């Protein structure tokens, strides 16, 4: 099947293993839900000003325990701006990042090309960055970026005391700390701490609204008032001070109201799923148990047969398993990223077990 046919098949499915129900994500339905949900008397924003966007920025700043916050179109913009500001204030162009952080592998070296920053890659690409890794860095640093959770290695999180030790190391050296909190909302069940306490470790924090919260787009950078004031200037320089962003803001507000309190349920479901998949010798989950509602699922077998089997299951049951399998470091082993959302909660453990048993059998995977 070509990509267009695959997308059509996915649109015909009524249940999904991953994320939120995709069959609800039509432009007309999203906008209609926002219109029904929003306060009809609330006026749209204008170049970042107005009750709607300013009130939301204040709400997120309070939620994260920061002095101020600014809403931007993307996290890419938030993070580059934060690191640029810390770099200029320190008079150092080196920032410490994990080898698989978003800035390094998904942004075409924008932090280097646009802002003249030098990324010091710290730690192993397939493990969490540790205090020992940082202690081996001999160059002066302007900032340290940490991602919680670390998406590219299955949503792993450092233990709280290890995280605090890393932050203390940076603070003692007057190195600014920035949190890539694209999925910060998903960390609360693991740490059993409020977002304010987690965010308080960091000088600046970025959070996203379109991932687990299901917003249209948008992000917030939060931190000290003077940093955020300067960030607004850089936002303008980046072309991110859009004339109106109220659809993004409204969908972000809606996502917070509807989904922020579901993070525990998502995580518990992820733990259930990992336990179910343990019964299949040809499947591994990383990390196991999952630290958040995210995990990487590794399946040994023939990639084409596995993907064909998943499409066949979708045609017959109207249940969508995954879009595609990605290569892994292990021979004849493939992976996909599983993020538990509203759609996943509708599937029982016996259903999930039966789906994967069918998948492996049809793909001719032995040892099932």
Descriptive account of the structure:
The protein is an alpha/beta fold and 368 residues long. It has 2 domains: 3-25 and 262-362, Alpha-Beta Complex (Aspartate Aminotransferase, domain 1), CATH 3.90.1150.10; 39-257, Aspartate Aminotransferase, domain 2. 44% of the residues lie in helices and 16% in strands. The protein is built from 16 helices and 13 strands. Strands 2-8-7-6-5-3-4 form a 7-stranded mixed beta sheet, sandwiched between helices. Strands 9-10-13-12 form a 4-stranded antiparallel beta sheet, covered by helices on one side. Helix 8 (160-172) links the parallel strand 5 (143-147) and strand 6. Helix 4 (75-90) packs across helix 11 (225-237), helix 13 crosses helix 16 (349-362) and helix 14 (303-317) crosses helix 16. The radius of gyration is 21 Å and the shape is globular. The model has no long low-confidence stretch (mean pLDDT 96).
Shape: globular
Gyration radius from CA atoms, angstroms: 21 Å
- Helix percentage: 40-55%
Q: Please state the average pLDDT score.
A: 96
CATH superfamily of the largest domain: Type I PLP-dependent aspartate aminotransferase-like (Major domain)
Report the β-strand fraction as a percent range: 15-25%
């Amino acid at each position: 099947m070509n990509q267009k046919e695959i997308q059509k098949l996915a649109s015909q499915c009524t249940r999904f293993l991953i994320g939120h129900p995709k069959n609800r994500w039509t432009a007309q339905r999203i906008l209609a839900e926002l219109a029904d949900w929003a306060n009809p008397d609330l006026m749209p924003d204008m170049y970042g000003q107005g009750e709607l966007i300013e009130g939301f920025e204040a709400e997120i700043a309070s939620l994260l325990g920061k002095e101020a916050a600014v809403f931007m179109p993307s996290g890419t913009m938030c993070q580059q701006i934060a690191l640029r500001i810390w770099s200029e204030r320190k008079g150092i162009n080196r920032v410490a990042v994990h080898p698989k952080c978003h800035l390094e592998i998904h942004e075409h070296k924008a932090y280097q090309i646009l802002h003249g920053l030098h990324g010091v890659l710290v730690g192993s690409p397939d493990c969490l960055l540790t205090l020992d890794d940082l202690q081996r860095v001999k160059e002066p640093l302007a900032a340290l970026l940490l991602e919680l959770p670390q998406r590219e290695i299955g949503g792993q999180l450092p233990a709280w005391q290890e995280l605090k030790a890393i932050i203390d190391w940076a603070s003692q050296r007057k190195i600014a700390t920035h949190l890539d909190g694209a999925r910060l909302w998903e960390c609360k069940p693991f740490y059993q701490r409020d977002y304010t306490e987690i965010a308080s470790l960091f000088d600046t924090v970025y959070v996203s609204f379109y991932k687990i919260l299901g917003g249209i787009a948008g992000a917030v950078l939060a931190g000290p008032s003077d940093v955020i004031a300067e960030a607004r200037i850089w936002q303008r320089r980046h072309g991110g001070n859009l004339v109106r962003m109220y659809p993004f803001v409204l969908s972000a507000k809606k996502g917070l109201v509807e989904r922020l309190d579901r993070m525990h349920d998502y995580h518990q479901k992820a733990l259930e799923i990992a336990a179910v998949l343990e019964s299949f010798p040809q499947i591994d989950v990383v990390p196991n148990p999952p630290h958040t509602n995210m995990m990487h699922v590794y399946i040994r077998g023939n990639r084409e047969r596995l993907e064909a089997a998943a499409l066949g299951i979708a045609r017959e049951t109207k249940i969508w398993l995954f879009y595609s399998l990605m290569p892994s470091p292990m021979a004849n082993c493939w992976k996909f990223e599983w993020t538990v959302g509203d759609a996943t909660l509708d599937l029982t453990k016996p259903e999930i077990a039966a789906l994967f048993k069918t998948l492996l059998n049809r793909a001719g995977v032995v040892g099932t």
